[in-house]
Amino acid sequence: MMPLWCYLVVASALFAIGTFGVLTRRNAIVILMSVELMLNSANINLVAFWRYHTPLDMAGQVFAAFVIVVAAAEAAVGLAIIIAVYRHYRSIVVEEVDALRG
Amino acid sequence: MAGIEITPHTFFFLLSTILTLGGAIGVVNNRNLVRGSIWLIVSLFGVAGYFVLLHAPFLAAVQVLVYIGAIGILITFAVMLTRGMTQLQRRFSSLWWLGASASLLLFIVLLFTVIEPIWGDLSAVPDAPPGSTTDLGIALVSGDGFVLPFEVAAVLLTAAMIGAIVLAREARNADE
Q1: Cα–Cα distance measured from residue B89 to residue A63, given in angstroms and rounded to the nearest whole number
Q2: Which residues 6+ apart lie within 8 Å of B88 measured at CB?
Q3: Which ipTM was obtained for this model?
Q4: Degrees (nearest 5) of the Cα angle B55, B28, B13?
Q5: Which of A78, B143, B170, B174 sits a CA distance of 20 to 30 A from B45?
Q6: A58-73 pLDDT, tens per residue?
């Protein structure tokens, strides 16, 4: 089997790529997709630590399953908000949706 | 750390890595959002490969069903419902270099944290057989396990479903 650090390095790279997408892209849908990437990197970490440290206690896998549930809820509500914003502003570029700017 | 021989396991690990990271780069760097959602599905498929390699077959199946099946389709629909935004001329915000250096710095910090042996022996390979899908199911519904978070997750999914319907509904129906 691969040592644990291989999985951790891949998860770190995936998290960093997701952070880049969240911080720099202008389209709100791409930002949501990047958040999904970051959640997936957390899932890789959870399952890898479960496999290498507590393979008999199922808490790691249960946590990963709950992360998937929350990600599904987040994607549904987030995309609904994006569609509502698009209907109102005719745009989902995050810089142009600034009604709450002080 | 060096000296990893090429076994089928290593080969599939590398394949999953290429799918995951290549798909992720495709997501953040595409010009066309329809292609971006396809790249996202490629990346999520690579993560499912990791779950298979880590002896978590149930999570791999859930990953394919929920992430690739449901969330992938949902994002594709959202891309198609916002047609005018699919191909923006400027993909990145004007401060993209700041975000790039911040994420690069984050990656370097995470890399140091991960390589440092604070998580126990990082090259140790477990020899005990891991818990099976049966154990996962028992842990999810047993009283001393995770039955309360399980029910809360069910409530959360219901609330999210109703909320998504209410938010995405046409505004003129809200007055009635």
Answers
A1: 40
A2: A26, A27, A93
A3: 0.92
A4: 25
A5: A78
A6: 888 999 999 999 999 9
Instruction: Give B89-108 as a 3 state SS string.
Output: CCCECCCHHHHHHHHHHHHH
What distance in Å separates residue B27's CA from the closest CA in chain A?
Answer: 7
Domain range annotation of chain A = 4-89
Q: What percent of chain A has pLDDT over 70?
A: 99
CATH 3.30.70.260 holds for B1-87 = no
User: For chain B, how many helices (H) and strands (E)?
Assistant: 7, 0
The residue count of chain A comes to: 102
Residue B135 pLDDT class (50, 70, 90 cuts): confident
Q: Do A20 and B53 touch (CB under 8 A)?
A: no
Task: Tell me whether residues B71 and A27 touch, CB distance under 8 A.
Answer: no
Q: Which residues from B are below 8 Å from A45, CB to CB?
A: none
Rounded distance between C-alpha atoms, residue B56 and residue A51, angstroms:
9
Q: Is A25 helix (H, G, I), strand (E, B) or coil?
A: strand
* Pairwise CB contact (< 8 Å): A26 & B93: yes
| Band (A16; pLDDT cuts 50, 70, 90) | very high
Q: Does the domain made of A4-89 have the CATH classification 1.20.1260.10?
A: no
pLDDT by residue (tens digit) across B141-154? 888 889 999 999 99
Phi and psi, residue B146, nearest 5°: -120, 35
Beta carbons within 8 Å of B107's beta carbon, 6+ residues apart: A12, A13, A15, A16
Nearest CA distance, B110 vs chain A (angstrom): 6
Q: What is the dihedral of CA A14, B95, A22, A79, to 10 degrees?
A: -150
| pLDDT of A81 over the 80 cut | yes
Do the Cβ atoms of A19 and B13 come within 8 Å? no
